[in-house]
Task: structure prediction
Amino acid sequence: MNLVEQIKSFMKDEKLVTGAACNAVDFAITKGILMRTSDRRDSSEVVQHAPFTLFPSPVPSHLMDQAKDVQKDFGFLMHVLSQDQDFLKSAYSSVLESDEFTKNLFDIYETTRQEKPKKAELALIRSDYMLHQPDQNTISLKQIEVNMIASSFNGIGTEKVTALHEYNLNSNGFKDFHDRMPENLALPNLADGMLAAWNHYGQPNAVIVFIISDVEQNIFDQRTLEFKIIEKNPDVRVRRYTLGEVADKGKLDSNSKLFIAGEEIAVAYYRAGYTPNDYLSQKEWDARRMLDCSDTINCPSAGHQLVGAKKMQEVLTQPGVLEKFIKGADSLKRLRDTFVGFYGLEMGAEGDEAVAKVLKNPDNYVLKPQLEGGGNNLYNQDLVDKLNEVGSDKRRCSYIIMEKVRPMPVSTIIIRAGSGPQQFKPVEGVSELGIYGVFLASGDKIIKNTCAGHLLRTKASHHDDGGVAAGVAVLDSPLLV
Ligand SMILES: Nc1ncnc2c1ncn2[C@@H]1O[C@H](COP(=O)(O)OP(=O)(O)O)[C@@H](O)[C@H]1O
Ligand SMILES: [Mg+2]
Result:
């Protein structure tokens, strides 16, 4: 029996699995794979382990290599797209008419392009993929989305989960797995990215600010990155502010330096600010504008955030668009190989045709608004209902249609805190592989563009949408096959 089969066979023995799960929970808690509880998301007084799979899930090693190989192409692509204001304006023209959030962000972007076109921008990117297996004989890497803001789980979901899975395999008698479990340096690499931006800013007393929500269940993931930054450079100070606090306390001096509570802000790293809920009033938008228009290096800038929108994925599949930005044939191929089919829903004959085509076979598509964070996409009957509702007016332009990926099924055991006494039965799951990248540039000058590590999340197959924060996907790690 090979290792994957041995793991499958182990998972069928409920007694063995229960023992392994108890040990795994203790290991996870000891290692700090933690979250706040869903009923006390504002307090660290009582905490729980984050949900995880008992064992790593198989990922074909050639697809892992392919995902890593294309990461720098995506870093470069996202940046050059963001530097072309006319292109962005025309690519997003229909969305700007119908989507208030994108419009507000775009207004800030336009101001920064005018006032500070050479300003440094940092992006901690995560490009997410599924392993598309439409039939037994074909498997390929297909991109789900590029996260340009708040790419989470770099703290608690990376090297800590590899360590947990190594412990679980080792303590349950499995052998010869080390070479199959790739090292994951996402956390130190992302911390290095933040420090590179801080160094670039060049003011030793200036601080790094995490822009946060006032209530945050996934706080330990954020703080793991914060503590890694301080571990690497104990002279750096990291602060945590909401956009509201930035609005209340932030002051721009006459040289565009931003100060909060007397401290100059070198870098602003957003773990909030990606949904309309994070901008409940004009005050939060004013804070965002102040951050983007100051000398503070934003991670991401409004421009980098904009090019991470789902609409851009659709635009990039239109004929000739990718070629406009990427000149090398190899790079073009690497990028395009990961794309699935998309449809835009602009008003007019083409959009109408796309709607008609999708309504004929709704199960083959996903309807996506320009939102992040899980739980926003529409599938099956919900997709049909939404298209019928918005089909004939301009609201439909704020959505795109994406072909559905058919991910390779894996057998897995999910361990979730707080769900009472659990029966540990293997379930069919599907995995999503994320590749982190660090990108730092100032105008045309690229200072850093690296592939930084990975994240594997797995969910039970019967869920359409994903997301660990949404309570669907759980932390996993790849076992290369
Ligand atoms: N084209 C697709 N095919 C299959 N599943 C998809 C597709 N697009 C999204 N999903 C599922 O929905 C989840 C959320 O979609 P995503 O585009 O990543 O939006 P979000 O910004 O909310 O994370 C993904 O993690 C994945 O599980
Ligand atoms: Mg996603």
In short: The two ends are 14 Å apart (CA to CA). The chain has a mean pLDDT of 96. DSSP finds 18 helices and 21 strands in the chain.
